[in-house]
């Protein structure tokens, strides 16, 4: 196949504001090495990791919620893993694409496969060791470009009539949600409270918790209640009602699945029943919270953080996609060259669901 030597790409030059993302018309196209494949990117989703890494929000020197703007962050711990990222870097992890070239050791028959990505870069000799993982679009170049290279095991063939943009909504949001629910051992006898249910991860939590048979109570801004209800939530309430405990007095909340944090966090924790579980994979409203240890230990609560997912999560999600057990929530599609505008919309939460860019 005759492929161009260069490609269009949005390249992040360092931590900071949106101006750190620079558009290039002739960026060198990568070649796959041994065990790798080259994808032609058809669509790439946008998620909080892209915004937080670019802005430096993950640094422990930052105590505010996600703003997407330049932050006074320490560069050495400003990424998800607490280590410095190398710039320039092509971000973007949620790729739907086509394999157009394979490296040594990869079957040539894989050329032409339509795939989505497993974004966790694992040590082949120690794949369950979370300390030896990296993230696609952070530790190596990602999908905000026309072409991208990944290890062959990180691209999963998908047989679906969803569009490329729809398929690009699944990799990050849904794997994050499934990881949270797995850590919390959510089952059919649970009632799950989901703050931020109109976001990409929140909407995925709603669907995947319902798939497990759980009862779901969603919190979202009132303008987005109809969309959240369509995802299957049993109850949809305002984002931060002053009388939430009273509204839920007839419910038994056994799991809190949170990517929001912020000032309302103590209220949500106080709703958990004895032996309840809290699972967290984000803090977009703010990472610093007020925590009463007595609530934690007197109610026998279990807290789990969830970042690195297990290897079986993405293959399972592909099966759910192919069998239509879960559906995409595509909010808007932008041209890749308009990634600045797309991130502004994402940060402002203008849409319900996921935003995708296409080269």
From TrEMBL:
* Oxidoreductase listed as a keyword: yes
Q: Which SUPFAM superfamilies match?
A: GroES-like, NAD(P)-binding Rossmann-fold domains
Q: Name one Pfam family in it.
A: ADH_zinc_N
Keywords annotated in UniProt:
NADP, Oxidoreductase
Has UniProt tagged this entry with the keyword NADP? yes
Q: Where is the Enoyl reductase (ER) domain?
A: 16-357
PANTHER family in the cross-refs: QUINONE OXIDOREDUCTASE PIG3, QUINONE OXIDOREDUCTASE PIG3-RELATED
- UniProt name for this protein: Alcohol dehydrogenase family protein
């Amino acid at each position: 196949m005759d492929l161009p030597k260069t490609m269009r790409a949005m390249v992040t030059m360092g931590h900071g504001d949106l101006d750190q993302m620079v558009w290039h018309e002739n960026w060198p196209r990568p070649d796959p090495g041994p065990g790798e494949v080259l994808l032609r990117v058809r669509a790439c989703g946008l998620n909080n990791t892209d915004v937080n890494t670019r802005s430096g929000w993950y640094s422990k020197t930052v105590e505010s919620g996600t703003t997407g703007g330049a932050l006074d962050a320490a560069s050495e711990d400003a990424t998800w893993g607490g280590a410095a990222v190398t710039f320039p870097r092509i971000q973007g992890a949620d790729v739907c694409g086509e394999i157009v070239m394979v490296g040594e050791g990869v079957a040539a028959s894989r050329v032409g496969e339509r795939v989505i990505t497993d974004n966790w870069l694992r040590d082949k000799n120690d794949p369950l060791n979370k300390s030896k993982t990296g993230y696609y679009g952070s530790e190596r170049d990602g999908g905000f470009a026309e072409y991208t290279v990944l290890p062959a095991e990180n691209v999963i063939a998908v047989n679906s009539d969803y569009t490329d943009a729809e398929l690009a909504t699944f990799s990050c949001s849904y794997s994050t949600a499934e990881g949270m629910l797995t850590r919390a051992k959510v089952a059919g006898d649970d009632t799950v409270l989901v703050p931020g249910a109109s976001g990409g991860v929140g909407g995925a939590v709603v669907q995947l918790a319902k798939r497990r048979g759980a009862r779901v109570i969603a919190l979202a801004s009132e303008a987005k209640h109809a969309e959240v209800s369509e995802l299957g939530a049993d109850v949809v309430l305002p984002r931060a009602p002053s009388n939430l405990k009273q509204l839920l007095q007839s419910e038994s909340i056994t799991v809190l699945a949170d990517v929001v944090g912020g000032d309302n966090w103590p209220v949500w924790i106080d709703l958990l029943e004895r032996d309840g579980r809290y699972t967290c994979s984000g803090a977009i409203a703010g990472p610093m919270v007020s925590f009463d240890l007595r609530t934690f230990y007197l109610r026998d609560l279990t807290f789990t953080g969830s970042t690195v997912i297990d290897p079986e999560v993405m293959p399972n999600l592909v099966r759910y996609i192919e069998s239509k057990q879960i559906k995409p929530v595509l909010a808007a599609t932008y041209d890749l060259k308009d990634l600045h505008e797309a991130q502004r919309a994402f940060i402002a939460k203008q849409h319900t669901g996921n935003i995708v860019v296409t080269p």
